[in-house]
Amino acid sequence: MPSTASEFLLRRREVVGKLLHDRGDRLVIGGLGSTAWDITAAGDHDLSFPLWGAMGGTVAIGIGLATAQPDRRVLVVTGDGDMLMGMGSLATAARQNLKNLTVCVFDNEHYGETGMQTTHTASGTNLAAIAAGCGFANSRQVETEDQLTEALPLLRDGPGLQFVCIKVRAEKLAFVLPPKDGVFLKTRFRRALLGADVV
Amino acid sequence: MTFNISERIVDDMVAAGINFVTTVPCKQLAGVIDLVEKNDQIRHVPSNKEDEGMGLCAGSYMGGGKPCIIMQNTAIGVTVNTLSALIQFYQFPLPMLISYRGEVGEPVACQVEMALHTKPILQQMNIPTFHFHKKSDVEELPAILAYTQMCKKPTAILTDASFWRAA
């Protein structure tokens, strides 16, 4: 089944820009590839942790962070390819009864960094339904500006555990790369969060 | 030596400040996992697969936690990319308490195959590796946990059937 994602209404960079606008003290984990470029395009930030590898692990990192920082909202921003690879983490998150984690999947139905091959969401896999089945009480799919406007406050602030699959146009955008030094990315995040004496 | 090995291991973890543990079960580790679950100083997050568990540990550390992963040596086959692209690339300290299946005393032939690959893979990846064979080997654990934090590397603690038989 060919994907119709090139005609989807929502544009990923605009949506990420709205999600991270005036982001306050929210903690952001970005999945490797397009979503890491997206969060960087919205403004590189000490409390952003973009991944350069470890595909499939983005939600898991968000869960670990949310357990360590229960009073801060953790936003996981990732793509459909990464989410399909790490789907078990949706069950893990739901079983932990987390109050402060939002999982945002930017679903363009393609592997954007490897030649735009279609993913399983192009042929019907419904990530929001999977999240609901794993136990996310708040799970939705967003396809229009109106739906996005309604969802944004929940994604940014909760309550509780939130999942959203945002259907975004399949498009090739300019790279906006975060720093490439992993130790720098880790340390700047920890210092911004935990204090300047953290090494 | 009359001490209980599982209790000793969990006590040493708590004393080292470990406050986040993820587990993928193994029969040999069942006693440790049970104690981790019951310990109110440790957040226990069971994971579906060991690469997921390493992501959980990385996230915990990012938030100020001190994590540990408990798993079987089959996981070394599962996690090579996560070890290199996440744990080693970003330099996360990660003690890995590993049941070393497939050694002498192993009843399941299939386990032997991965046992043969376990140490070569760890060596190839420059992962500091410690092999607990006798009950008294557990006395090294506090120093290994401190070493792991000092060097910010994954470390492998292989615990074989002889070690657990003595427990």
Q: What features would you describe in this structure?
A:
- The complex is a heterodimer of chains A (199) and B (167).
- Chain A is of the alpha/beta class.
- In chain A, strands 2-1-3-4-8-7 form a 6-stranded parallel β-sheet, with helices on both faces. In chain A, strands 5-6 form a two-stranded antiparallel ribbon.
- Chain A is globular.
- Chain A has helices at 12-20, 34-41, 58-68, 80-85, 88-95, 127-134, 145-157, 182-194, and strands at residues 27-30, 48-50, 74-79, 101-107, 110-111, 117-118, 138-142, 162-167.
- In chain A, helix 1 (12-20) packs across helix 2, helix 1 (12-20) packs parallel to helix 7 (145-157) and helix 5 packs parallel to helix 6.
- In chain A, strand 5 (110-111) and strand 6 (117-118) form a beta hairpin.
- Chain A has one domain: Thiamin diphosphate (ThDP)-binding fold, Pyr/PP domains (Rossmann fold, 3-Layer(aba) Sandwich), CATH 3.40.50.
- Chain A starts with 11 loop residues before the first helix and ends in a 5-residue tail after the last helix.
- Chain B has 167 residues and is of the alpha/beta class.
- Chain B has a single domain (5-161), classed as 3-Layer(aba) Sandwich (Rossmann fold), CATH 3.40.50.
- Chain B contains 8 helices and 6 strands.
- Chain B has helices at residues 5-15, 30-38, 50-62, 74-78, 80-88, 109-124, 141-151, 161-165; strands spanning 20-23, 43-46, 67-72, 94-100, 129-132, 154-160.
- In chain B, strands 2-1-3-4-6-5 form a 6-stranded parallel β-sheet, sandwiched between helices.
- In chain B, helix 7 links the parallel strand 5 and strand 6 (154-160).
- In chain B, helix 1 (5-15) packs across helix 2 (30-38) and helix 3 runs parallel beside helix 5 (80-88).
- The longest helix of chain B has 16 residues, at 109-124.
- Classes of the chains: A alpha/beta (199), B alpha/beta (167).
- Chain A binds chain B through residues 27, 29, 49, 51-54, 56-69, 86, 88-89, 91-92, 95-96, 182-183, 185-186, 189-190, 193-194, 198, and chain B through 20, 43, 45-49, 51-65, 67, 81-82, 84-86, 89-92.
